[in-house]
Amino acid sequence: MAASFFGPQKNTNVRVGLPAVCFVWQIAMVVLFGVFIRYDEESDTHWVEFRRENNITSDIENDFYFRYPSFQDVHVMIFVGFGFLMTFLKRYSYGGVGFNFLIAAFGLQWALLMQGWFHSLNPETGKITIGVESLINADFCCAGSLIAFGALLGKVSPVQTLVVALFGVTLFAVEEYIILDLLHCRDAGGSMVIHCFGGYYGLAISWVLYRPNLHLSKRFHGAVYHSDLFAMIGTLYLWMYWPSFNSAITDHGDGQHRTAINTYLALASSVLTTVAISSMSKKGGKLDMVHIQNATLAGGVAMGTAAEFMIQPYGALIVGFCVGIISTFGYLFVTPFLEKYLKLQDTCGVHNLHAVPGMLGGFIGAITAAAATEAVYGAEGLRNTFDFEGEFENRTPGTQGGFQAAGTCVSIAFGLVGGVCVGFILRFPIWADPGDDNCFDDEVYWELPEDEEIVPPVLEYNNHMIHKHQEISESNFSVDQS
Amino acid sequence: MAASFFGPQKNTNVRVGLPAVCFVWQIAMVVLFGVFIRYDEESDTHWVEFRRENNITSDIENDFYFRYPSFQDVHVMIFVGFGFLMTFLKRYSYGGVGFNFLIAAFGLQWALLMQGWFHSLNPETGKITIGVESLINADFCCAGSLIAFGALLGKVSPVQTLVVALFGVTLFAVEEYIILDLLHCRDAGGSMVIHCFGGYYGLAISWVLYRPNLHLSKRFHGAVYHSDLFAMIGTLYLWMYWPSFNSAITDHGDGQHRTAINTYLALASSVLTTVAISSMSKKGGKLDMVHIQNATLAGGVAMGTAAEFMIQPYGALIVGFCVGIISTFGYLFVTPFLEKYLKLQDTCGVHNLHAVPGMLGGFIGAITAAAATEAVYGAEGLRNTFDFEGEFENRTPGTQGGFQAAGTCVSIAFGLVGGVCVGFILRFPIWADPGDDNCFDDEVYWELPEDEEIVPPVLEYNNHMIHKHQEISESNFSVDQS
Amino acid sequence: MAASFFGPQKNTNVRVGLPAVCFVWQIAMVVLFGVFIRYDEESDTHWVEFRRENNITSDIENDFYFRYPSFQDVHVMIFVGFGFLMTFLKRYSYGGVGFNFLIAAFGLQWALLMQGWFHSLNPETGKITIGVESLINADFCCAGSLIAFGALLGKVSPVQTLVVALFGVTLFAVEEYIILDLLHCRDAGGSMVIHCFGGYYGLAISWVLYRPNLHLSKRFHGAVYHSDLFAMIGTLYLWMYWPSFNSAITDHGDGQHRTAINTYLALASSVLTTVAISSMSKKGGKLDMVHIQNATLAGGVAMGTAAEFMIQPYGALIVGFCVGIISTFGYLFVTPFLEKYLKLQDTCGVHNLHAVPGMLGGFIGAITAAAATEAVYGAEGLRNTFDFEGEFENRTPGTQGGFQAAGTCVSIAFGLVGGVCVGFILRFPIWADPGDDNCFDDEVYWELPEDEEIVPPVLEYNNHMIHKHQEISESNFSVDQS
């Protein structure tokens, strides 16, 4: 078919490539974990001795109890939140949720190693020790690549998604090290390191992989009624658990508490402005599911940095108010513009949900940090919140604000440059990506059931008739089934 | 069309009204939060000083760690539980989950203010301080309006739902203040203040908004196979997390622990009696999804007040046993009766799931309270459980029982009277509500995808054929797509 | 119909049997709970005195705060995880999620009694006292029967599923007592007592209930596109919360912490090898949803015993690596083999997901235990981890390993022998099970909506046309609806 008009049909066979990559990379993980990774003192059986030595009075002070509920919420966001948000396409729901599952499962292992080498390698023993906070960070690190996958959804092969994750996690660990350790920024919920980086990383890859004939897959590009409902599962889990996402690794006590409150408020505010703009933009004021599914979440993204600061509840509402508007405008005007004039195809609109709100979140964080005063935070509170300790003891909030802004720029740069490089790697003709007329179609990489709308109706109609009218003779039926 | 038989078709255009309400109300929230709302001492950076002053030994004693996991469960119940439970209609799933999302997002902000003014306004500073318990209470407060929305599902415009939430939250805060503060009732899980109030509030509104020609929308009134499965997601999340709902704001320690156990047991018991009655009522003993989706939850509603008392595990089972039966009977006989003879259209049957079980829960709470003895609770336990402190130091369990019963009556009265008033407000012809022949139809307020069953089959069938038989020439296909 | 070819159609009327069983059993539960079950000291109002007597400094040390978040995750796994995983069949989704709900709701009550009698009956008072750990154990106990239900899915009546649960819970409590108390095995996540037992129990029942003419229901045996997506909800919740499942009842502190980490890693590793084998097995490297939905979970099953030991992170990865392969091979080759040569019909493939990985998990636990040394665990850590206290004070790790292996054999024996016995009970012709041509069909036990694919398309198409072309006269429409 495709041969007659478009030249030889693309080879989308991944029967060698996908198993090979999965096996080789997983074996590499086993070996590297064997060499490097051990339990930390809170998850090791020596905890009982550690407790005694450090005068910890109760097991409940194990970091596990501070962070595990948030960890599980983050875990749900990564696998159900991101996964189901990407089921909105009528015939790419398996790919959305399934490849998300695959790359997150690989990415979190690689993230434990990469983040471990940069942040918690013990120089004496040569080991990385992990605990519940490492698991949360590994999930965070995957999120960057999953965001990038959102821009590429339906246009890449599963092998390519794994490559995106491999380099995405690697780049993430480096930029995170620069931003958090060298620049000493605070970014608990990852506006900069996760969303801004992940968004621009995905956009840059997508730009390099531009498909001029993507309209040939137009028949698959869109939702059906129930696929939009599946996507709402993803949206709601992201929305509900975002307070846990932003607060998962903030300071014990007031840090986690305040971050959760701020995020909760910013998200609520986003919903109302998203609905307002969505309704204004359509004939009859009808709402668009794409906006509801995505722009309502922008408040969480934009609060990723500032949520742990004393931005005040009304500050959180203002942030949500503005980014809800900006994000919805993005879906209405910017995504079509990018596709038409910048040759940038962004399936899930990560530009509007992650890249821009993430960047804004970075700058909001910078401003909030620069505006911090001892009067509001208290001397001790200021020191704790911004970690003005050790070599950073004398840093002022103003300086901190400058560094926060610089950090945002670093994350954009890493996303764009890294994405372009990875994009070129993905253009090698070895990855079994789909042809322009086969995008957004699960048929390419999945065994599909004979579906209700296609073949079964005839049979099911018959069965139904048989159920209803028992007088129809069985012989007819048997012929049908044979 | 409608013009020829029913007069001019109703104007359902919300393009001005919906954005206007969203913007104005959200701006009002920002201003009011700016004036009134601040962090409490456990979410403020001064926590470290507060800890020292109050001899709190560890960050883990921040209220956040007592309540945050339960808060997140409650949050899931509000957005996924209520939201997906209302997706059961074949063509109103977007409206069910989407408007639920909208009104909860607005309602929780307004609730923080209303509940703050009544319960935690500091007279010296003029500020309301909020923490995780405030967030839980705000979610609870929304629940009342979401329950009312259940009775109205499919028959109101999004602007009307916001009005329902605005007045619902306001009324809630007042009745809650009367019941909990003035009458000094205990109602941790809100049998009275949430379910009984919310149920009667919705029923009264629906009664005022009676639509004599609702049968014109009959074609949309019912489920399809997969919409019932989406609704089961809502059911199960409500069912599973109800122990968290009831225990979220009970006393630290044994209070939360006991409440969770009682609720868990009552819910389990409801399931069996619901199945029994549902099966008995139909030919061949077939089960009805409406009963399974709703009546199984009645045990949680009915335990909302008594769950924190020493009702004993078998007491919880008995409560669940009885309300499972009553609720299923309600769906079988009372809802049709109400519609036929009382002109009361109750889309989700909130009468059977919230109003009646909530009212019963209030009285069960009253009886359990009246039966409390020092022998069972211990002197200290009795005092803690019923807060017999301060001006209520000398109240006896018997008196407490009387006040609990009075509280239930207050909640019914508030629901009915408030609902009738709000109903009349909603009858003004300015709200762009759907016509009688357009109810239960997402087409009115949502941009819908061209759906699989309607237009696509022809195309998809073609695509399928092309996939299967590659010999079909591309030219044909191009014509199809053009 | 069926009469003409297959003799008289089977009686599937459960209108007497199902309500009778539900009522009688639920009343029995009420009575038995009344006689036996009370709150334990951490959920009783006397907790405040208990705290003082035991010098517990804070309410946060109530076991509730150690275990409740994990309990809720386990609860989600039981009801949404297992429930939705079984919605994959195109026309048995109601039965999958609904009967799962029913038997778990009964099973957990019966489990509280059975486990209470064996583990926590106070000989002085004759009472069983329950707390949050009892609720977790009750959920675990149900899991065994739900696994068995997976093998029988679509082939049994709801009454039979309740019988499976009644005996399943009973057998579970006995084998658990033997394995955990008499043999003093450790099995926190239940590789042996839950998965291995439940898997073989279901397989044995299914073997006895072999249906030679099951091919007559072939038209219902398979998925449709959206039913597979519903099943993915189940898969992901099981996958995400499995760390909570395995760690829910392990030791406070490092025990829960380490178990969660190990399970998280094993599961991640399973995903990659499952994808690899699934892709290798199909033409074009296409992935099979059955494998992704099931075999990705094998890592959690196989880590059920060893996760709390010092298996090290790379050990967890190796376990996940191997069982992902084994489980996928099972779906590809063993299930068809069992059906063809052993006359064993296993609807969900519990052989590959529970029986074999559970058995392997038991032996992995035995080996890990036998390899434990004081050098790795520390003297105190070794004692705590394996509970080498009281009469087991002098047990060595080597001996412990032997007992762990013996425990695995006990669970297999209980599953197989118990399952055969229960299977024969279920063959009595009184249970209203479906005929061979009616399996996997919700029509038999559920009131079904007139579905989108069957009747509505004509109507909906009309409605759609009316919406689009308002010139079509209303009179036409009214005729359609009448």
From TrEMBL, chains A, B, C:
Q: Where is the Ammonium transporter AmtB-like domain?
A: 64-427
Chain segments annotated as coiled-coil in the UniProt record: none
Q: Which residue ranges does UniProt annotate as crossing the membrane?
A: 16-37, 74-92, 99-118, 130-154, 161-180, 192-210, 222-241, 261-280, 317-338, 359-379, 403-426
Q: Which domain of life is it from?
A: Eukaryota
Q: Which GO terms describe its biological process?
A: ammonium homeostasis
Q: Which UniProt keywords apply?
A: Ammonia transport, Cell membrane, Glycoprotein, Membrane, Transmembrane, Transmembrane helix, Transport
Pfam families listed in its UniProt record: Ammonium_transp
Please give the family membership noted in the entry. Belongs to the ammonium transporter (TC 2.A.49) family. Rh subfamily.
Instruction: Supply the name of the protein.
Output: Ammonium transporter Rh type C 2-like
Q: What is the lineage of its organism?
A: Eukaryota, Metazoa, Chordata, Craniata, Vertebrata
